[in-house]
Amino acid sequence: MVKQYGQLYVDTRRALLETENVQDAGVLARMLICQASGKNQAEFLADRDLYAPEKVVKEVEANLQRLLKEEPIAYILGQWEFYGLPLYVNENVLIPRDDTVAVAQLAINQAIFLPSDPRVMDLCTGSGCIGLAVASRIKDARVTLADISKDALAVAKKNIARHKMTGRVSCMQVDAMKPAPAFLGKFDMIVSNPPYITDAEMPGLQDSVKLFEPHLALCGG
């Protein structure tokens, strides 16, 4: 069934009002439509009276059902912004959160005072969000994104390439619970946002976190 973009927005927002307030429902509806159509928000608004292709309508409706089942919007979109950097994300990494920006900012503030060409490690890196934020601000930093998860490192590698940082940023599989292998060498700074949710706290997490985000990156035991 084809619909005008404006009607598709109204229908999607109405469905989202089951779980969201009016403002959030509107924002999420626009995100779903822009993602499916490839339009930015200005183009979507300009094309409200045009008919959306059936393929776009079906994709929006399918993603709406995922959202109503509490799957995070970041996984549906396949990306999320952190510290001004659009990052690829999937179910193998935590979604970068606003409170992690404080960790990244603290690391950047410290890195400013390091010697030239500092070596920085982002341990338990996940998507690489903190390390890439540091690399984006400290232009001479050589950053290692380290994680125990090969799947997480695959995501981090995509983000390195996306932001054209392959010359200064690399990935390495590291177990934070074991002694560091000698070949890693020394670092001027190590920053980490490790798993810190206790076993007892895990059942109390929101379903959108507990059911969809990787427990390896959440549960600290």
Share of residues in helices:
40-55%
**Quick one: overall form?**
elongated
Structural class: alpha/beta
* Whole-number mean pLDDT: 95
Summed up, the helix count is 10
Order of secondary-structure elements: EHHHEHHEEHEHEHEEHH
Task: Give a quick set of tags describing it.
elongated, 221 residues, alpha/beta, 8 strands, two-stranded antiparallel sheet
How would you sum up this structure in a few lines?
This protein is an alpha/beta fold.
Can you describe this structure?
The strands form 3 sheets. A 4-stranded parallel beta sheet has the order 7-6-5-8, with helices on one face. Strands 1-2 form a two-stranded antiparallel sheet. It has a two-stranded antiparallel sheet with strand order 3-4. The model has no long low-confidence stretch (mean pLDDT 95). The chain is an alpha/beta fold and 221 residues long.
Strand and helix map with partners:
Elements: E1 3-4, H1 5-16, H2 22-37, H3 41-46, E2 51-52, H4 54-68, H5 73-77, E3 79-82, E4 85-88, H6 98-111, E5 119-123, H7 129-137, E6 142-147, H8 150-162, E7 169-173, E8 189-192, H9 207-210, H10 215-218
Parallel strand pairs: 5-6, 5-8, 6-7
Antiparallel strand pairs: 1-2, 3-4
Helix pairs in contact: 1-2, 1-4, 2-4, 6-7
